[in-house]
Write a structure and sequence with these properties.
This protein is α+β, with helices and mostly antiparallel strands. Helix content is 66%, strand content 16%. Helix 1 runs parallel beside helix 4 and helix 3 packs antiparallel against helix 4.
């Protein structure tokens, strides 16, 4: 994300500086010949999207719309250009691997294709018609770009929040590990003392019972030996528990260190993304 922001910001500045804001008079080779056009430059989109936008716009005002070689609105009603129906040609031109393109719009009236030498009213009307829709499309693209950046910012903030929550959990688990390790040490001492106390008792009872202990004596001796074995087993478990808790504590401490580093990187990414969002908001607000 950090690298992406560094890449996008200079691109955003450069495209904002040179972004086209008004239609230009030009010409373009459509499938039936070269015609005068009103062209508009777009950044960060593709021909399919632009032509789809114009197709939808022309459907609102045309009897039919064809899309075989270029988008053509047949019998379109554009009052600011002509009182009669007109034909509107649209073709988006984009170089390979380029994020930018030019949309060419030609308008055919009963007097011919509208161009610089046409009736001033028709020319200005056609220019305004293309300008209005091109600006709307440019704004739509800018809104999408801003929305994407805002979603990216929200995602980064959530990721930072998750890191903060993970750190709190790890810190709490460090304290739990310390507590359990301390409890394991206490258990080691208790079981050691218990086993140490049982040893002499077992030895003394064995001596008292001799080679042929009676049933009750044998039962008592067996119980003492069992208690000592259990104490020794519990002692080993306590040793293992302490080692496991110390190991877990060490791992959690390392996790917290990594978390701190990740939070720092995420905060930097958020700062860069916020700058990007602010720039895109300014770009959007500048579109009139």
């Amino acid at each position: 994300m950090k690298a992406l922001a560094r890449l996008i910001l200079p691109l955003l500045v450069s495209t904002s500086l040179f972004a086209q804001t008004s239609v230009e008079v030009s010409s373009f080779a459509f499938s039936d010949g070269v015609h005068p056009t009103f062209s508009f430059f777009f950044e960060g989109t593709d021909t399919k999207y632009v032509e789809s936008y114009w197709r939808d716009e022309l459907k609102k005002i045309s009897a039919t719309v064809s899309t075989k070689k270029e988008v053509i609105g047949h019998a379109a009603l554009v009052p600011q250009v002509s009182g009669d129906t007109v034909r509107v040609y649209v073709k988006a031109e984009q170089r390979k691997n380029s994020p930018n393109l030019t949309a060419h719009v030609a308008i055919l009236t009963t007097a011919g294709f509208v161009g610089p030498n046409s009736d001033p009213r028709a020319f200005d009307g056609a220019k305004g018609f293309v300008q209005q829709r091109s600006t709307a499309l440019r704004r739509q693209l800018a809104e999408q770009e801003l929305s994407l950046a805002e979603r990216g910012l929200s995602r980064l903030k959530k990721e930072l929040s998750d890191l903060q929550r993970d750190k709190e959990r790890d810190l709490a688990n460090i304290e739990k590990s310390k507590q359990r390790a301390a409890e394991a040490v206490q258990e080691q001492e208790r079981t050691r003392v218990e086993a140490d106390q049982l040893g002499p008792r077992i030895t003394a009872l064995q001596a008292a019972l001799g080679e042929t202990p009676d049933k009750e004596g044998a039962k008592e001796l067996s119980a003492l030996i069992r208690d000592k074995d259990r104490a020794q087993s519990d002692h080993k478990k306590a040793l293992a528990q302490e080692a496991a808790m110390r190991k877990k504590e060490t791992e959690l401490i390392e996790a917290v260190k990594k978390n701190d580093a990740d939070q720092e990187k995420k905060a930097q990414a958020i700062s860069e993304q916020e700058t990007l969002v602010q720039s895109l908001r300014a770009k959007l607000s500048a579109i009139r």
